[in-house]
Amino acid sequence: MTKTALITGATSGLGYDFVQLFAKDGYNLVLVARNSQRLQEIKKSLPKIEVTVIAKDLSVPGAAKEVFEETERKGIAIDVLVNNAGFGLMGKFDELDIQKQMNMISLNIAALTELTHYALSGMKLRESGRILNVASTAAFQPGPLMAVYYASKAFVLSFSEALSEELAGSRVTVTALCPGATSTNFGAVANVEGTKMFSRAMASDDVAKKGYAALMKGKRVIVTGGLNKAGAIGAKFMPRSMAAKVAKYVAGEK
Ligand SMILES: NC(=O)c1ccc[n+]([C@@H]2O[C@H](COP(=O)([O-])OP(=O)(O)OC[C@H]3O[C@@H](n4cnc5c(N)ncnc54)[C@H](OP(=O)(O)O)[C@@H]3O)[C@@H](O)[C@H]2O)c1
């Protein structure tokens, strides 16, 4: 039977590249993002598979539940969940809009956690399933000037690794994808395009391909790119205070 993947943040960047990878492998898709016109365009571009689009702002409390209920009403079982939607913001914590930062926590953490909960119950019943949570290399250290974003991704990584261990020995896997700077709309949304951290961004389709391969192998954590891997390892062996200084340095202008 044809499997179905639900992808959040499917309208651009990594999410859009995941859509292409799953479609190529013949998956049916449930695509979630806010821009309904773009979702419809993507659906039209994929005539050979069944595509359900759900236009939803996942930062609104209750939105993740509404998405899941819509899949249930349509009788869709989610075989693969890709929690990809997320955004960052550059600036001092106290100077950034607090509502935007709270929305970031709602999207990057709360919606991801809730969708995982709802999808996991069906996966456990069917004794099969895969979950890909998009974290970041930001997960490995504190991030001055993007404090809430880095902390949100630390949550995603810790949560995914813990869940993966809870599910060890079952046929349900959880993979955390940790990209470094990647060429998508993220840089413009977060206002980080002119920073040192974005001076070497990886191609989005390359990052998505590596994440997809790791997901299909059931790997726990994948850091994309040699430099990013070295950075993640370095952060593990550095005092956290020093790692925070390095993160602050790379958040500075080129
Ligand atoms: N690019 C990087 O350098 C980088 C590095 C590490 C990790 N990441 C992570 O990768 C993931 C994907 O980001 P990206 O780089 O592909 O950025 P992107 O091009 O800006 O894509 C973000 C996606 O999320 C959707 N989205 C944003 N807010 C939403 C909301 N409130 N409700 C539902 N959907 C929402 C957007 O669609 P709509 O606007 O249509 O809602 C879009 O499809 C994020 O979790 C990000 O933190 C990115």
Relevant terms:
9 strands; Rossmann fold; 9 helices; alpha/beta; 7-stranded parallel β-sheet; two-stranded parallel ribbon; 254 residues; binds NADP nicotinamide-adenine-dinucleotide phosphate; globular
Describe the protein's architecture and organization.
The protein is α/β, with parallel strands linked by helices. It has a single domain, classed as NAD(P)-binding Rossmann-like Domain (Rossmann fold, 3-Layer(aba) Sandwich). The longest helix is centred in the middle third of the chain and has 29 residues, at 98-126. The strands form 2 sheets. Strands 3-2-1-4-5-6-9 form a 7-stranded parallel beta sheet, sandwiched between helices. The protein is 48% helix and 16% strand. It has helices spanning 13-24, 36-44, 63-73, 98-126, 147-166, 186-190, 204-217, 226-237, 240-250, and strands at residues 4-8, 28-33, 51-55, 80-83, 129-134, 172-178, 182-183, 202-203, 221-223. The mean pLDDT is 97. The structure holds NADP nicotinamide-adenine-dinucleotide phosphate. NADP nicotinamide-adenine-dinucleotide phosphate binds next to helix 1 and helix 6.
List the helices and strands and how they pair.
Elements: E1 4-8, H1 13-24, E2 28-33, H2 36-44, E3 51-55, H3 63-73, E4 80-83, H4 98-126, E5 129-134, H5 147-166, E6 172-178, E7 182-183, H6 186-190, E8 202-203, H7 204-217, E9 221-223, H8 226-237, H9 240-250
Helix pairs in contact: 1-7, 3-4, 4-5
Bound molecules: NADP nicotinamide-adenine-dinucleotide phosphate.
